[in-house]
Design goal:
disordered C terminus
């Protein structure tokens, strides 16, 4: 999940770079389509297509729709919101996942886990608000930040429902099925947005960004999240998202030369403490019973 957080964090500055040059819906479609094709080739060469994996296909459309909402809202949000502010909102996902687990499945989270989640959230807020209490007190959500919050709810739903809907399929196949289903849904619902995009006018840098989003931020991150969701409870699983603002900041320091200030170090230490304690206290998730719906 640490690697997952690093790969996902790259989506924010890259998404901000291309968000105003391509429709968010078209961008989400092309990244999912490219990732689906690459995974299909891999699965075919490894002879990993099994008839039983395609049972109850509605599962993949439900999960694919959830992730589609997240990425569409993310790219829409990055038109106006900064990568660090959006990545900070992403740290709310653990609490949303815990709430969904409790509301839908009646699962409770231990008090010590909640405490570590709060420490990690506090560390993320230190980074987001630059160590200033005034910045926190006068917080005003912009349109982009509000949109991204809605997308974060969709992402939390994916983390919660994945282990309930999975029936022993390999993580790589799940990733393929989810992204292929997402591509189909977007194409059926928004065909005009895709057709109206002038793909020929996109520069090589845009296609490099799309390739990163499809390969690293989609294929690898989906597979990692799917694998981890079978071994960690949803609250512990999504706790790793606390490190996202930190990795976004690291990227900006390394690539754009941003100065490493005291509040970045303080927030990073708090996040690191939270992750270490969660990893130490984490216990394997109980295997879900196969669904028969």
């Amino acid at each position: 999940m640490v690697l997952f957080a690093i790969l996902v964090s790259g989506s924010y500055p890259i998404g901000a770079y291309i968000a105003n040059d391509i429709d968010p819906i078209a961008l989400t479609f092309i990244r999912f389509l490219l990732a689906s094709v690459l995974l299909a080739v891999f699965l075919w060469r490894k002879d990993m297509f099994r008839r039983e994996y395609f049972k109850r296909p509605w599962r993949y459309f439900l999960l694919g729709g959830s992730f589609s909402f997240y990425f569409i809202f993310m790219f829409e949000a990055l038109k106006t919101a900064s990568p660090i502010s959006t990545s900070s909102i992403f740290t709310m996902m653990p609490f949303l996942a815990v709430c969904l687990d409790r509301a839908v499945f009646g699962l409770k989270t231990k008090s010590n886990i909640v405490f570590y989640l709060l420490v990690g959230a506090a560390g993320a807020l230190v980074i987001v608000f630059q160590g200033s209490l005034a910045n926190l007190i006068y917080l005003n959500l912009s349109y982009g930040e509000l949109v991204f919050f809605l997308g974060t709810i969709s992402h939390a739903a994916y983390a919660v429902f994945m282990p309930k809907l999975r029936s022993g399929e390999p993580a790589v196949f799940i990733s393929f099925a989810v992204m292929a289903s997402a591509s189909i849904l977007i194409l059926l619902i928004f065909p005009n947005r895709i057709v109206q995009t002038n793909w020929a006018d996109l520069g090589w840098d845009m296609y490099l960004c799309i390739a990163y989003l499809a390969i690293f931020a989609s294929i690898f991150s989906f597979t990692l999240l799917t694998f981890a969701s079978s071994h960690l409870a949803s609250g512990q699983l999504t706790a790793y998202t606390f490190s996202t603002p930190f990795w976004v900041t690291v990227f900006q320091v390394a690539v754009f030369g941003q100065e490493l200030l005291t509040y970045l170090i303080l927030g990073g230490v708090m996040i690191f403490f939270s992750l270490v304690m969660l990893l130490w206290r984490a216990q394997p998730r109980a295997e879900p019973k196969p669904q028969t719906v």
